[in-house]
Design brief:
By secondary structure, the protein is mainly alpha-helical. It is 66% helix and 0% strand. It has one domain. The protein has nine helices and no strands. The radius of gyration is 21 Å and the shape is elongated. Keywords: Membrane, Transmembrane, Transmembrane helix.
Protein backbone atom coordinates (compact mmCIF):
# COMPACT_ATOMS: atom_id res chain seq x y z
CA UNK A 1 0.00 0.00 0.00
CA UNK A 2 1.35 3.42 -0.96
CA UNK A 3 1.94 5.93 1.81
CA UNK A 4 0.59 9.42 1.33
CA UNK A 5 3.13 12.20 0.74
CA UNK A 6 3.30 14.77 3.51
CA UNK A 7 2.73 18.41 2.59
CA UNK A 8 3.57 21.35 4.81
CA UNK A 9 0.92 23.75 6.04
CA UNK A 10 2.18 26.42 3.65
CA UNK A 11 2.11 24.03 0.69
CA UNK A 12 -1.43 23.00 1.55
CA UNK A 13 -2.50 26.63 1.77
CA UNK A 14 -0.82 27.48 -1.54
CA UNK A 15 -2.52 24.53 -3.24
CA UNK A 16 -5.90 25.54 -1.80
CA UNK A 17 -5.49 29.09 -3.12
CA UNK A 18 -4.44 27.81 -6.56
CA UNK A 19 -7.50 25.58 -6.75
CA UNK A 20 -9.83 28.32 -5.49
CA UNK A 21 -8.68 30.67 -8.25
CA UNK A 22 -9.77 28.01 -10.72
CA UNK A 23 -13.19 27.41 -9.24
CA UNK A 24 -12.51 24.50 -6.88
CA UNK A 25 -13.15 25.03 -3.17
CA UNK A 26 -11.61 22.48 -0.81
CA UNK A 27 -10.54 22.79 2.81
CA UNK A 28 -7.75 20.25 2.43
CA UNK A 29 -6.38 19.32 -1.00
CA UNK A 30 -5.39 15.72 -1.57
CA UNK A 31 -1.82 15.03 -0.40
CA UNK A 32 -0.53 14.64 -3.94
CA UNK A 33 -2.05 17.91 -5.12
CA UNK A 34 -0.82 19.71 -2.00
CA UNK A 35 2.75 18.61 -2.72
CA UNK A 36 2.49 19.12 -6.48
CA UNK A 37 0.93 22.57 -6.38
CA UNK A 38 2.55 23.71 -3.15
CA UNK A 39 6.02 22.89 -4.40
CA UNK A 40 5.30 24.83 -7.59
CA UNK A 41 4.07 27.88 -5.68
CA UNK A 42 6.40 28.08 -2.70
CA UNK A 43 9.48 25.94 -2.76
CA UNK A 44 12.68 27.59 -3.93
CA UNK A 45 14.74 24.80 -5.45
CA UNK A 46 18.32 24.34 -4.35
CA UNK A 47 20.82 26.00 -6.65
CA UNK A 48 18.15 28.38 -7.95
CA UNK A 49 20.32 31.49 -8.13
CA UNK A 50 23.30 29.67 -9.61
CA UNK A 51 21.08 28.08 -12.24
CA UNK A 52 19.56 31.38 -13.30
CA UNK A 53 22.98 33.02 -13.27
CA UNK A 54 24.27 30.41 -15.73
CA UNK A 55 21.47 31.15 -18.18
CA UNK A 56 22.05 34.88 -17.89
CA UNK A 57 25.75 34.40 -18.61
CA UNK A 58 24.88 32.19 -21.58
CA UNK A 59 22.52 34.90 -22.84
CA UNK A 60 25.19 37.58 -22.56
CA UNK A 61 27.71 35.39 -24.39
CA UNK A 62 25.22 34.54 -27.14
CA UNK A 63 24.24 38.18 -27.59
CA UNK A 64 27.91 39.17 -27.75
CA UNK A 65 28.56 36.40 -30.25
CA UNK A 66 25.71 37.49 -32.51
CA UNK A 67 26.82 41.11 -32.40
CA UNK A 68 30.42 40.10 -33.12
CA UNK A 69 29.29 38.00 -36.09
CA UNK A 70 27.32 40.87 -37.57
CA UNK A 71 30.23 43.25 -36.95
CA UNK A 72 32.69 40.85 -38.59
CA UNK A 73 30.46 40.65 -41.66
CA UNK A 74 30.58 44.47 -41.83
CA UNK A 75 26.82 44.85 -41.95
CA UNK A 76 25.79 48.47 -41.36
CA UNK A 77 23.72 48.81 -38.21
CA UNK A 78 20.92 50.58 -40.05
CA UNK A 79 20.53 47.54 -42.33
CA UNK A 80 19.94 44.93 -39.65
CA UNK A 81 17.22 44.08 -37.16
CA UNK A 82 18.01 45.96 -33.98
CA UNK A 83 16.41 43.45 -31.63
CA UNK A 84 19.11 40.80 -31.37
CA UNK A 85 19.89 41.72 -27.76
CA UNK A 86 16.21 41.80 -26.82
CA UNK A 87 15.62 38.40 -28.40
CA UNK A 88 18.48 36.82 -26.49
CA UNK A 89 17.36 38.44 -23.22
CA UNK A 90 13.81 37.10 -23.64
CA UNK A 91 15.12 33.63 -24.40
CA UNK A 92 17.51 33.71 -21.43
CA UNK A 93 14.72 34.79 -19.06
CA UNK A 94 12.46 32.01 -20.27
CA UNK A 95 15.17 29.36 -20.04
CA UNK A 96 16.00 30.48 -16.50
CA UNK A 97 12.33 30.31 -15.50
CA UNK A 98 11.97 26.89 -17.13
CA UNK A 99 14.98 25.64 -15.16
CA UNK A 100 13.40 26.85 -11.92
CA UNK A 101 10.07 25.17 -12.67
CA UNK A 102 11.78 21.96 -13.70
CA UNK A 103 13.77 21.91 -10.46
CA UNK A 104 10.57 22.39 -8.45
CA UNK A 105 8.87 19.55 -10.30
CA UNK A 106 11.87 17.31 -9.71
CA UNK A 107 11.68 18.02 -5.99
CA UNK A 108 7.99 17.17 -6.06
CA UNK A 109 8.73 13.96 -7.99
CA UNK A 110 11.28 12.96 -5.36
CA UNK A 111 8.52 13.19 -2.76
CA UNK A 112 6.06 11.31 -4.98
CA UNK A 113 8.22 8.39 -6.17
CA UNK A 114 5.36 5.92 -6.63
CA UNK A 115 3.16 8.42 -8.41
CA UNK A 116 5.42 9.41 -11.27
CA UNK A 117 3.70 8.26 -14.45
CA UNK A 118 1.37 5.90 -12.57
CA UNK A 119 -1.29 7.16 -14.99
CA UNK A 120 -0.56 8.36 -18.48
CA UNK A 121 -1.96 10.10 -21.53
CA UNK A 122 -0.67 11.36 -24.85
CA UNK A 123 2.46 13.48 -24.54
CA UNK A 124 0.78 16.02 -26.82
CA UNK A 125 -2.27 16.50 -24.57
CA UNK A 126 -1.07 19.85 -23.11
CA UNK A 127 -0.86 21.37 -26.60
CA UNK A 128 -3.99 23.14 -27.77
CA UNK A 129 -4.93 24.54 -31.15
CA UNK A 130 -4.40 28.17 -30.19
CA UNK A 131 -0.84 27.54 -29.04
CA UNK A 132 0.03 25.55 -32.14
CA UNK A 133 -1.55 28.18 -34.39
CA UNK A 134 0.18 31.13 -32.73
CA UNK A 135 3.58 29.43 -32.77
CA UNK A 136 3.17 28.37 -36.39
CA UNK A 137 2.19 31.89 -37.43
CA UNK A 138 4.99 33.46 -35.38
CA UNK A 139 7.82 31.37 -36.77
CA UNK A 140 6.41 30.07 -40.05
CA UNK A 141 5.00 33.46 -40.99
CA UNK A 142 8.19 35.22 -39.94
CA UNK A 143 10.33 32.91 -42.05
CA UNK A 144 8.00 33.39 -45.03
CA UNK A 145 8.11 37.19 -44.69
CA UNK A 146 11.87 37.33 -44.24
CA UNK A 147 12.43 35.01 -47.21
CA UNK A 148 10.11 37.11 -49.37
CA UNK A 149 11.96 40.23 -48.30
CA UNK A 150 15.31 38.65 -49.14
CA UNK A 151 14.22 37.44 -52.59
CA UNK A 152 11.91 40.24 -53.72
CA UNK A 153 13.77 43.26 -52.35
CA UNK A 154 17.54 42.62 -52.33
CA UNK A 155 18.18 46.06 -50.84
CA UNK A 156 16.73 44.68 -47.61
CA UNK A 157 18.72 41.46 -47.82
CA UNK A 158 20.81 42.17 -44.72
CA UNK A 159 17.72 43.00 -42.72
CA UNK A 160 16.00 39.82 -43.92
CA UNK A 161 18.74 37.38 -43.02
CA UNK A 162 19.46 38.98 -39.64
CA UNK A 163 15.74 38.59 -38.92
CA UNK A 164 15.97 34.95 -40.00
CA UNK A 165 18.91 34.54 -37.64
CA UNK A 166 16.90 35.86 -34.70
CA UNK A 167 13.93 33.69 -35.63
CA UNK A 168 16.29 30.73 -35.67
CA UNK A 169 17.58 31.49 -32.17
CA UNK A 170 14.08 31.99 -30.76
CA UNK A 171 12.77 28.95 -32.64
CA UNK A 172 15.53 26.71 -31.28
CA UNK A 173 14.75 27.84 -27.73
CA UNK A 174 11.02 27.36 -28.33
CA UNK A 175 11.55 23.82 -29.64
CA UNK A 176 13.75 22.96 -26.67
CA UNK A 177 11.18 24.26 -24.19
CA UNK A 178 8.23 22.52 -25.83
CA UNK A 179 10.01 19.16 -25.98
CA UNK A 180 11.26 19.49 -22.40
CA UNK A 181 7.82 20.40 -21.06
CA UNK A 182 6.04 17.62 -22.93
CA UNK A 183 8.61 14.96 -22.02
CA UNK A 184 8.76 15.77 -18.30
CA UNK A 185 7.55 12.94 -16.01
CA UNK A 186 3.83 12.87 -15.28
CA UNK A 187 3.11 13.46 -11.58
CA UNK A 188 -0.33 11.94 -11.14
CA UNK A 189 -2.07 8.89 -9.72
CA UNK A 190 -5.65 9.42 -10.90
CA UNK A 191 -7.61 11.34 -13.50
CA UNK A 192 -7.94 14.42 -11.28
CA UNK A 193 -4.23 14.81 -10.60
CA UNK A 194 -3.59 14.02 -14.27
CA UNK A 195 -5.83 16.97 -15.21
CA UNK A 196 -3.78 19.20 -12.89
CA UNK A 197 -0.54 17.91 -14.39
CA UNK A 198 -1.82 18.70 -17.88
CA UNK A 199 -2.98 22.13 -16.76
CA UNK A 200 0.44 22.98 -15.33
CA UNK A 201 2.19 21.86 -18.50
CA UNK A 202 -0.15 23.92 -20.66
CA UNK A 203 0.46 26.91 -18.42
CA UNK A 204 4.21 26.40 -18.82
CA UNK A 205 3.86 26.32 -22.60
CA UNK A 206 2.09 29.67 -22.61
CA UNK A 207 4.23 31.31 -19.94
CA UNK A 208 7.50 30.25 -21.59
CA UNK A 209 6.82 31.17 -25.19
CA UNK A 210 9.71 32.68 -27.21
CA UNK A 211 7.21 33.45 -29.98
CA UNK A 212 6.77 36.86 -28.33
CA UNK A 213 10.09 37.70 -30.00
CA UNK A 214 8.08 38.50 -33.15
CA UNK A 215 7.27 41.82 -31.49
CA UNK A 216 10.89 42.92 -31.29
CA UNK A 217 11.42 43.88 -34.97
CA UNK A 218 8.49 46.27 -34.63
CA UNK A 219 10.73 48.53 -32.55
CA UNK A 220 12.52 49.35 -35.80
CA UNK A 221 9.44 51.25 -36.91
CA UNK A 222 9.72 53.47 -33.85
CA UNK A 223 13.37 54.26 -34.55
CA UNK A 224 13.37 54.36 -38.33
CA UNK A 225 11.10 53.55 -41.24
CA UNK A 226 12.94 50.36 -42.13
CA UNK A 227 12.06 48.35 -44.09
CA UNK A 228 9.30 50.65 -45.34
CA UNK A 229 7.54 48.33 -47.84
CA UNK A 230 7.08 45.68 -45.14
CA UNK A 231 5.77 47.86 -42.33
CA UNK A 232 2.19 46.67 -42.51
CA UNK A 233 2.91 43.01 -43.38
CA UNK A 234 5.27 42.75 -40.40
CA UNK A 235 2.84 44.54 -38.11
CA UNK A 236 0.00 42.31 -39.30
CA UNK A 237 2.11 39.20 -38.81
CA UNK A 238 2.98 40.17 -35.23
CA UNK A 239 -0.62 41.16 -34.46
CA UNK A 240 -1.99 37.85 -35.77
CA UNK A 241 0.58 35.75 -33.92
CA UNK A 242 0.11 37.58 -30.64
CA UNK A 243 -3.66 37.73 -31.06
CA UNK A 244 -3.86 33.94 -31.38
CA UNK A 245 -1.48 33.61 -28.45
CA UNK A 246 -3.54 35.97 -26.27
CA UNK A 247 -6.78 34.11 -27.01
CA UNK A 248 -5.17 30.79 -26.13
CA UNK A 249 -3.58 32.18 -22.97
CA UNK A 250 -6.88 33.65 -21.76
CA UNK A 251 -8.80 30.47 -22.56
CA UNK A 252 -6.43 28.19 -20.71
CA UNK A 253 -6.16 30.57 -17.77
CA UNK A 254 -9.92 30.83 -17.26
CA UNK A 255 -10.86 27.30 -18.25
CA UNK A 256 -12.59 25.58 -15.29
CA UNK A 257 -11.07 22.43 -13.91
CA UNK A 258 -12.93 19.19 -14.69
CA UNK A 259 -15.02 17.49 -12.04
CA UNK A 260 -12.99 15.24 -9.78
CA UNK A 261 -11.71 14.58 -6.29
CA UNK A 262 -9.46 17.50 -5.36
CA UNK A 263 -9.70 17.16 -1.61
CA UNK A 264 -12.12 17.43 1.26
Amino acid sequence: MLSHPTASLFETQAARIWLRKRGVEVATPTPLLAVRLGTRQLRQPSGHKQRQFRYWIAGVLLSTGLFSLLFALRIPEEQMVTGHTGTVIICAIQLAEWATRRARDREAAARLPHRVASVSQSRLAPLDGWYVASTTVAFGGGIALATTMFVATPQYGHYAWTWLLLLGVAGAVAAFLVVSILRAPTLADDTTSLAIDTRLRRSDLYDLCPAVCVLIPLTDFLQRDQPAPYTWPMAGHAALAMGLFAIGWLRQRHRPLPAGHYGT
